[in-house]
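queue> pop job 88
queue> type: inverse folding (structure -> sequence)
queue> payload:
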């Protein structure tokens, strides 16, 4: 749906540009040297709404996929949003926080980071940050042993 909205908004934008009732100037006070039409106001509102919807500042900055392997290893693949504000250096923090949560969930003693890589996925228009981590879970020692 997120990719569909801009596609649906383009015809609405074109219809507003073609509509003659929206091209009437807004009554202004004396001394103004420019004319603002109702259509211009709607276009600016539509542009702001579209930008807000695409960037979505309330959405999480990182998408995390977790793969659990049978030898008590966990692989995290993290991808940052294409358009986001901040959060560039938080991949390691997010990975450690998720690993600590998984240690508690599985009843393990601790974890060890075996591999951690950060990179920038270069695209022509929208590069984005990626991170890859391999974590080994350390099991709790047997009681009385």
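queue> result:
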């Amino acid at each position: 749906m997120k990719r569909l909205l801009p596609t649906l908004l383009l015809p609405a934008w074109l219809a507003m540009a073609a509509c003659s009732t929206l091209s009437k100037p807004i009554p202004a006070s004396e001394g103004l040297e420019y004319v603002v039409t109702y259509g211009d106001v709607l276009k600016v509102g539509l542009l702001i709404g579209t930008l807000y919807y695409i960037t979505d500042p309330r959405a999480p900055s990182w998408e995390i996929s977790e793969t659990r392997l049978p030898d008590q290893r966990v692989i995290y693949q993290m991808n940052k949003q294409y358009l986001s504000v901040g959060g560039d250096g938080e991949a390691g923090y997010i990975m450690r926080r998720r690993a600590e949560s998984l240690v508690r969930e599985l009843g393990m003693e601790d974890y060890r980071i075996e591999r951690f890589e950060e990179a920038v996925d270069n695209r022509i228009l929208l590069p984005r940050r990626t991170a890859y981590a391999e974590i080994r879970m350390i099991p709790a020692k047997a009681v009385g042993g």
